[in-house]
Amino acid sequence: MSKILSSKTGFDIVVQDVGVTVQPSSPYTIPPEDYARFAASSDVIRLLSDESLGLNDGGNDITVLSEAIDIIKGWPIQSTTAEPDPFFFDFDEAPIGPGPHTLFELTLGLGEELALKYISYSCRTESKLQVIKNGLTIANLRTGAAMPMASFAWLQNNICVENDFLEIILTKRTGPPDTDVGVNLQGALTIT
């Protein structure tokens, strides 16, 4: 997939932090060896956001801002007919006892698709957090003892579809039984 930037203003657009000028008569094709540099560019994201720059993937103009940013950053694009909604699960309580404790359960309904992005987790005692999809563990996070008090995992490319069952299970191994636990799961939910 190509990454081609074009000026949407009719004027030269200077992308200062990557040292490139995009002229209205001459779209700029980002060389593959520069993908990482452009992905880290705050100027590119700002200019896409304010519609000074446009992006083409080599065949189509990308008109949805979030897709253009994902392409620049090299993240996978979900082809959907509906715009995804942000999905958040936040847990901030003190489960009593060592567990295991089921903190979250979800079965996706008809036409639902959940693209998981990441999970973050904090606990002041030795503990383990598992993200389980249809009975298979897709993420194991641990805290305490010789490990940090907080942990996170990218869950990219984990897509849950209709009838998939997702759960988050916590097991505390040591420490006071009423230690607070913080969990944040993020993704994008699409209903078609």
Give an overview in words.
- The chain is mainly beta and 192 residues long.
- It folds into two domains: 4-73, no CATH class; 85-191, Sandwich (Jelly Rolls).
- Helix content is 11%, strand content 48%.
- The chain has helices at 35-39, 42-49, 65-73; strands at residues 4-7, 13-15, 20-22, 28-29, 53-56, 61-62, 85-93, 101-107, 112-123, 127-133, 136-143, 150-161, 165-172, 181-191.
- The protein has a four-stranded antiparallel beta sheet. It has a four-stranded antiparallel beta sheet with strand order 7-14-9-12, with no helix packed on it.
- Strand 2 and strand 3 form a beta hairpin.
- It is elongated.
- The two termini are 26 Å apart.
- The mean pLDDT is 83.
Features:
192 residues, mainly beta, Jelly Rolls, 2 domains, four-stranded antiparallel β-sheet, 11% helix
Layout of SSEs?
Blueprint: E1 4-7, E2 13-15, E3 20-22, E4 28-29, H1 35-39, H2 42-49, E5 53-56, E6 61-62, H3 65-73, E7 85-93, E8 101-107, E9 112-123, E10 127-133, E11 136-143, E12 150-161, E13 165-172, E14 181-191
Antiparallel strand pairs: 1-4, 1-5, 2-3, 5-6, 7-14, 8-13, 9-12, 9-14, 10-11, 10-13
User: How many E strands?
Assistant: 14
Overall spatial form:
elongated
**Cα radius of gyration in angstroms:** 21 Å
Q: Low-confidence spans: pLDDT under 50, at least 5 residues?
A: none
Mean pLDDT: 83
Strand content: over 45%
